[in-house]
């Protein structure tokens, strides 16, 4: 017998108690009972985003929340920068273009993060910018971008809104919406929040809400002003994904009980220990600086066979490379419901699969490196 294990960087694993909560008989979304749950969820989401602004819950995947933001804040011809350092960053640009916006692309090698001089130069060259879009954790390449610093640079050099795709970073990396002066932050349920897909979250600053008054793009389902009015009454304009919200109440409670700081530290440890393990089995890490949500690794020789053994013999689902990184890298998620046991397990399975394809390394070295990283951290925290 082998247990199937999900190590993809979204969707990520869901705790049993969240699944059980979602399996309860459905309740009505206009009932007092559901309103009470919504009130708790809304307040937990503000804690998660470290904000006093409303965090709106939309029934869609994360892409829907990005689309909603563009429709609600901007107009045809509005100019925006996007920093293209991966598949999801690239998508931000094509979405802007899809809505008739003028896009300025800052091109960055996939596997790296934007250089601050690049950002400053682009900001100074385009004084009439409405927005700058950045991906906090670029899931396609495993790269982290320093949003705190980028937001500071953007505010110092322009009037543009700082818009953050935090889909694989919220609940993983520190993200302080208010104190970093972020204007837009977005996430979705199936990454750091230990939930199935289906919900997306968007938080807007006061400045961003001002933009929403001037936007002329058509909107209806994703009219965020309507969503905000409903939010004030712990409600939604349309039928929400009731059972998902019931599950979210449990998962957010688990996150906040663990403590946000502890959750961020746990992800850092998992990422660090898996990276140590990967180096110890003589594989090459891809991407720098590393996101704590996902570790990207160059495929070994016989990579296809390696991945197939991992999947079929060990029942482990990792993600392969996307687009131009297809057949070049594979990716391990550490998102959400993921612990030290998972870090040890993935290295153990990787070692066995590598041995099966004839990769040369010392057996046990990967697992040992994970274990040593964990032990060092325990020692440091004493
Ligand atoms: C997963 C992901 C997306 C896409 O989100 P969906 O929920 O699939 O729409 C966008 N950006 C990043 C960084 C992601 O990790």
Q: Short summary of the structure?
A:
The protein is an alpha/beta fold and 382 residues long. It has 13 helices and 15 strands. The longest helix is centred in the last third of the chain and has 21 residues, at 260-280.
Helix run count: 13
Give me the count of strands.
15
- The whole-number mean of residue pLDDT values reads 98
Helix proportion of residues, in percent? Answer: 40-55%
Radius of gyration (CA) equals 21 Å
Distance between the termini: 38 Å
The kinds of small molecule bound in this structure are: pyridoxal-5'-phosphate
Give the overall form: globular
Strand order of the largest sheet: 2-10-9-8-5-3-4
Q: Indicate the proportion of strand residues.
A: 15-25%
Largest β-sheet summary: 7 strands, mixed
Characteristic key phrases:
7-stranded mixed sheet; alpha/beta; globular; single chain; 382 residues; 16% strand; 15 strands; binds pyridoxal-5'-phosphate
What is the element layout, followed by pairings?
Elements lengths: L4 E2 L9 H7 L9 H18 L5 E5 L2 H12 L5 E6 L2 H12 L3 E6 L8 H10 L5 E5 L1 E2 L4 E2 L2 H11 L3 E5 L18 E5 L10 E6 L1 H9 L9 H8 L10 H17 L1 H21 L4 E2 L7 E5 L4 H10 L3 E2 L1 E2 L8 E5 L6 H17 L8 H16 L2
Bound molecules: pyridoxal-5'-phosphate.
